[in-house]
Structure formats: C-alpha cells, structure tokens
Design brief:
Layout (H helix, E strand, L loop, with lengths): L2 H8 L4 E9 L3 E8 L15 E6 L3 E8 L2 E7 L2 E5 L4 E4 L13 H13 L2 H8 L3 H29 L4 E10 L3 E8 L4 E7 L3 H10 L1 H4 L5 E4 L3 H10 L4 E4 L1 H20 L4 H9 L13 H11 L3 H19 L3 H16 L4 H12 L1 H5 L9 H16 L6 H13 L6
Parallel strand pairs: 2-5, 8-11, 11-12
Antiparallel strand pairs: 1-2, 3-6, 4-5, 6-7, 8-9, 9-10
Helix pairs in contact: 2-3, 2-4, 3-4, 4-16, 5-7, 8-11, 8-13, 11-12, 15-16
Length: about 425
C-alpha cells in the first residue's frame, strides 16, 4: 500500500511518512517527519527568526493499530532556536505530548476501554503493560469527571420541572454508605457525598451553593427521615415523593412475614411447597406466566390468611397503577388501609402504622409520577464498578470513577 494511504489511515496530517522501517506479523515500524519546515517560537510566536539547530535521537511513539498490528512511529526530535528571543526549544508534535511514548489517540482509546471494563482488560486488548494503562486511566479521570459533571449540572440548572432522586448505597453494608444526588429527567448523577446522616447532608448543602441554587419540582427518596428533613430545609416548595418501590418493599415484607407464620403450621409436604415457591407471592399476578399462576393458586389455598394478605398486596399495586389523580388516590389509600386493618397479624399492623405516617409522601406519587428505578439500576452499575476496581482507596479517584461510570452514556462530545 502506498505511504500516503497509510498516512491517511493513521489520521496524522502533521506528519509525512518516509518508509516502513520494519514489519512482521505483530508490529509495524514507520519512519516519519514533520510536514512543515518550521514551528513558531513559544515566546514571540513567530517563525521569522526560527531556524533548525540539529536533532536528537529519534522518538519511538506507540500509535493506534494498523493492519491488525501494533504500530510505532519513529519521529525526529528536532532542536530549534529563535535568534530574536535567544531561546532554544524542541519541536512540539500535536499527536503526542512532550516526553511521552504513547500518542494521544492511543491514550484516548486505551482509557475509553479501561473506563468500560478494567485497566487489566484494556492492557490485554492493547498489548501494553497494565501499569502503563493504569497510569493513563488515573491521569484521565479528573478531567473527564469534571467535564461530565459540569455537563450534568449545567443541564440540571436549565431543566424545566427538574426532578431529583436521593438515595444511598453501601460501601460496606451495615458500616459505611454514600449518598447519590441524581437528575431523574436528565438520567445523570450530579454528585456523590460520603455518609447518609442528617449532619453530613447539611454540611454538604452549606459547602455547595450550586445544589441550593437548583429549583426542583419534586424530589424522590425512600422513607429515611434524614432525607425528608434535609430536602424540606433545602427545597421547601418541592414535592417530596416516597419512592414507590421502597414503599412496596414494606408491603412485600409483611406478606412474607405472614407466609412464614402460616408455613410453620402446615403439614410437611405443604410446608416444603410453600417454602420453595415463596417468591411467587412478590410480583403482581398479571406478570406471572400461566404455569406460575397455577402454582400461586396452590400456595394461596393453604391458608385463608395468606390469601387475604396477598389480595391486600395486590390491591396496593392496583392503587399505584390506576389512581387517576391525587383526590381519588387519597380516597383509595384510606380504603386500602381499612382493608389491611381487617387482617389480624402483627406484621400487617406494623406496616400500616408506617405507611400511615408517610401518607402524604406516598400519595404525592400521584402528583408527579416519578420513581427511583433508574437510581437503583445505577447502584448496580456502581457496585459492579467497585468489584471491578476492588474499591479505590483514593477518595477523589473513587468519586471521579463513579461519576464517569454513571454519566458517560449521556455525554456529548
């Protein structure tokens, strides 16, 4: 193939290829030089008084693969001098940084692979040392995180009817947690703060005026009192919505508590069947296949109490799905609570006490129908990131990595 076509494949218009130095089944070495004769002086920015002053040894630069082989560019390290400024300098190439052995395009591709997987995987793909790829990844994190975060905040500030999602995820379950702030409309993660206690949340608000400058229409969160207190202080006019799936989790827990109490009273065969298929009680019946529906009918036939609490759970799902407005939803919520009061079980009474305490926040779902479902999916992404990177001791790198992981799919440019 003629050298000019190889030059076009490499995408380096500033270089002019001279010859193929060496090529085998795994790598190709190309000799090149600058396409121009002079370069402006870094002091006076003029080429008029610049002249070449010799050259050092060739620089060997790793570039993107060509023909399925690793490619290396051998370019001269030209010495230049400006007689006007009396300064000497070395030729600066656009495609590679000073004193670097990997081109910018190679670094960009390598970091992009590492962001989606691990440095070790990217190193295998590029046939480069893992330590080198790790260093490239760490160097690229701050700038990429800043770019994506700035983009996410700019969009949040200009979004009409902004809806925020607040939720925590575990670093070490039962010991330490982080709290994420999400733009549900923009499908981005705005920030990550350590802890989930009220004092930590208030400290964050004091230190970040950009957060207080937001004007959300609604904020979706679970039933943690700290979050509701914090949001009512920061955004008193925002609608506070109890996340549907967190609330539904309380109902399912009460169903399973009833199932366990019923299970202990059954014959061994019925007890084994109920225990092995207890998950059929959780999803809405409409989503089950026919075979599972038949199995569910068998489970419910074991106990009138179990059937009664399951029907109560199904009524709650229908209330969420079919209430047309807030007024009808409020009436339906009271009827559903009355239905639950007819069930004689401690778990049901405890759940009813909880949902009545949060009635306004639960009913507010019908004012602004948003949930934290995308946030929960993002938590799975974060947990996968933590496993891939075996956590990160450097807090800044840890935070930057998570923000990139959650926002890069929405980036432009």
């Amino acid at each position: 193939m003629p050298l000019q076509y190889i030059n076009e494949m490499l995408g380096l218009p500033e270089l002019q290829l001279h010859k193929i130095v060496y090529m085998d089944a795994h790598q190709v070495h190309l000799e090149a030089s600058p396409a121009t004769d002079k370069q402006p002086c870094p002091v006076c920015h003029s080429e008029q008084y610049v002249k070449r002053d010799g050259r050092n040894k060739l620089r060997k630069i790793r570039h993107l693969a060509v023909f399925g082989r690793k490619s290396y560019l051998h370019v001269p390290s030209l010495r230049l001098a400006c007689s006007r400024c009396s300064v000497g300098f070395v030729w600066s190439y656009e495609f590679v940084g000073p004193k670097q052995r990997y081109s910018r395009l190679f670094r960009l591709q390598t970091v992009e692979q590492a962001l989606g997987s691990t440095a070790a995987h990217s190193a295998r793909m590029q046939e480069a040392p893992a330590s080198t790829v790790q260093r490239m990844h760490q160097e690229a994190l701050p700038a990429e995180s800043e770019r994506l975060t700035e983009q996410a905040w700019r969009k949040a500030k200009t979004t009409e009817g902004l809806v925020l999602g607040i939720d925590d995820f575990a670093i070490k379950k039962g010991h330490s947690y982080n709290t994420g702030i999400h733009n549900l409309r923009g499908e981005t993660m705005l920030d990550l703060l350590p802890g989930r206690k009220l004092e930590a949340l208030r400290t964050y608000a004091r230190q970040h005026p950009d957060f207080l400058a937001l004007n959300p229409k609604a904020v979706v969160m679970d039933l943690a009192q700290a979050y509701h207190t914090w949001i009512s202080e920061c955004f008193p006019r925002a609608i506070r919505i109890a996340d549907r799936f967190h609330v539904h989790g309380y109902i399912i827990e009460s169903v399973q508590a009833v199932r366990k109490s019923v299970q202990s009273t059954l014959a061994p065969r019925a007890k084994a069947i109920l225990k092995s298929h207890h998950r059929l009680l959780n999803p809405p019946a409409d989503l089950l296949p026919e075979q599972s529906k038949a199995q569910l009918d068998l489970l419910l036939s074991f106990s009138p109490l179990l059937r009664k609490v399951w029907e109560w759970k199904e009524a709650f799902s229908r209330w969420y799905d079919y209430s047309p407005n807030v007024h009808v939803a409020s009436l339906g919520f009271n009827r559903w609570c009355q239905q639950g009061e007819c069930i004689d079980h401690d778990a049901v009474r405890s759940t009813l006490k909880t949902v009545r305490n949060w009635e306004d926040e639960i009913v507010n779902y019908h004012r602004c129908r948003w949930t934290n479902a995308t946030v929960e999916g993002r938590h799975n992404r974060i947990k996968a990131y933590q496993r891939r990177h075996y956590f990160t001791r450097n807090r800044k790198c840890y935070k930057d990595g998570i923000l990139i992981e959650c926002n890069r799919h929405r980036s432009s440019g």
